[in-house]
Amino acid sequence: MLPFKFTGGFGLSTKSIGFIISFQGAYSMAAQLFLFPLVARRFGSLRVFRFVVMLYPVLYLAVPYVVLLPKDLQMVGIYACLVLKVTAAVLAYPSNAILLTNSAPSMLVLGAINGIAASTASLSRAFGPTISGLIHSAGLRLGYSGLAWWASALVSLLGAIESAWMEDVSGRLDPAEDEPAPDVDGDAEADVTDDLEAEGETAWVAIPPSKDTSAPSRTEICLGSPET
Questions:
Q1: Alpha helix segments (H runs only) across the chain
Q2: 12 phi and psi, to 5 degrees?
Q3: Half-sphere exposure of residue 211, counting CA atoms within 13 Å on the CB side?
Q4: Rounded to whole angstroms, how far apart are CA atoms 86 and 58?
Q5: Count of alpha carbons within 13 Å of 212, Cβ hemisphere only?
Q6: How far apart are CA 60 and CA 224, in angstroms?
Q7: Between the CA of residue 153 and those of 103, 157, 159, 228, what are the distances in Å?
Q8: Which of 161, 166, 196, 220 has the fewest CB atoms within 10 Å, i.e. the most exposed one?
Q9: 126 vs 2, 120, 139, 149, CA distance in Å?
């Protein structure tokens, strides 16, 4: 059975921390450009998102135990957890954005939905570090250095359960803007005009009566030859 009450850290130098952060940025950019398009095209946004949110609780639960590894394996564990975390983030955020966009019933509400989502994400980024920092401080006082990670695992587990009710809709219900509406009246009028022109007859086009009683109630359009 894994222990829960332990403290400690890696004692890394500033140079090592900087190299780890640089590796994180480089791998994140490469995965965003090459990995996500392949995975999303193969499995779909909803399946990818569900897999990632189910991976997060396991990742958050396992990260604190890397400090218990032997010294020669700690860096291997750090990079393994880092790769899993970056991969999960690269796959989760674009998939979430695609699902959110497809869920909008109309283009009229798409801006409001994206605005609410962005505001919620910003609010979480604002209060998340504060709350997790308080939990981590409490865990250190109690002798549980992984308390903040396990609390994050619990929150992500709730999100993974909630993803079971998510659906990937086909798209919005707006009509296609590039499809012009059929001009039924215009087509009918053109057909009648063509027939009258072919027969050389006179067409009478009705005009709504005006307020001027002396104005004619119809207009004569001569389609025949000048001699007629």
A1: 14-30, 36-43, 45-62, 71-102, 107-142, 147-162, 184-199
A2: -80, 150
A3: 0
A4: 14
A5: 4
A6: 87
A7: 27, 6, 10, 92
A8: 220
A9: 33, 10, 21, 18
Predicted confidence (pLDDT) per residue in 44-79, tens digit: 999 999 999 999 999 999 999 999 999 889 999 999
Scan for tokens 């009683």, then name that residue: 213
Share of the chain above pLDDT 90, in %: 50
15: number of Cβ within 10 Å: 8
Nearest CA-CA partner of 139 in 64, 222, 189: 64
The model's pLDDT over 99-158, given as tens digits with 9 standing for 90+, comes to: 988 888 888 888 888 899 889 889 988 998 999 999 999 999 998 989 999 999 999 999
Distance CA 34, CA 39 (A): 9
What pTM did the predictor assign?
0.68
Is residue 6 helix, strand or coil? strand
Q: What residue type is assigned to position 175 of the chain?
A: P
